[in-house]
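Hello,

Our lab assistant flagged a job as stuck in the queue for most of the afternoon. It eventually completed. Since we weren't sure the result was trustworthy after the delay, we are filing this so someone can double-check. Below is the sequence as submitted and the structure that was eventually returned. Let us know if re-running is recommended.
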Amino acid sequence: MRSKVVAGNWKLNGSLAGNETLLKALLGEVDGKPGVAVCAVCVPAPYLAQVRGLLQGSAIAWGAQDVSRFEQGAYTGEVSGAMLAELGCRYAIVGHSERRTLFGDTDSIAAEKYGAARKAGLTPIFCVGETLDERDRGITEAVLARQMDALLEKGVAGLGGGIVAYEPVWAIGTGRTATSQQAEEAHAFIRGRVAAKDGNIAAALPILYGGSVKAGNAAELFAMPDVDGGLVGGASLVATDFAAIWRAARGSPS
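-- returned structure --
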């Protein structure tokens, strides 16, 4: 049985005081019972030390929103996987559409970052997804194939221990959400792409849905057979909403 994961992506949000209030409230909502869904927050790099101090020993994991493809050297502004691991990170998001669109991360760079995260002992969350124009042109599967193949070309074995997140770009921060059937179709396609290389790895690979996940739609999305949790944006900044999404993933009432 695949792990269920609900990871919050705070994006460019947070403050020392606000983070403490949010996480203390979240700690009151999330328990550590065995066999339930993993709850995690991926926060801006300057706050990782604070988050470690607040969450260490709790049921909530933490991670970064990006990771460098380089291990060390003259790369001003970069943060390596080893640095993140030293701060107790469990996860690192790679290939998010905002990194691809705004900062020039190509499919190849995203795949390199995935490999760098794995080498450092992190669990990468590899984001894929199509734009509204690409969906309207009926090329969603071609886009997902291209993005996944950049990773698969480096060897399917490298997918073991990682996570994929399907995030339709047209649903990120827009309030629009893919229907549960649309999400399932995309997730099944991604899993099938991996299965063509290795069925066992595909069967064990958690695939999360991201794109305006809310407490009100989480249970329906997570009930789909190939949807293994969520990568949550805005709702992760509200403790009660994020906790409700996490409870939906573990099958408990909100």
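-- support follow-up --
The delay was a queue issue, not a problem with the job. The result is valid. The chain has one domain: 5-250. The CA atoms of residues 180 and 187 lie 10 Å apart.
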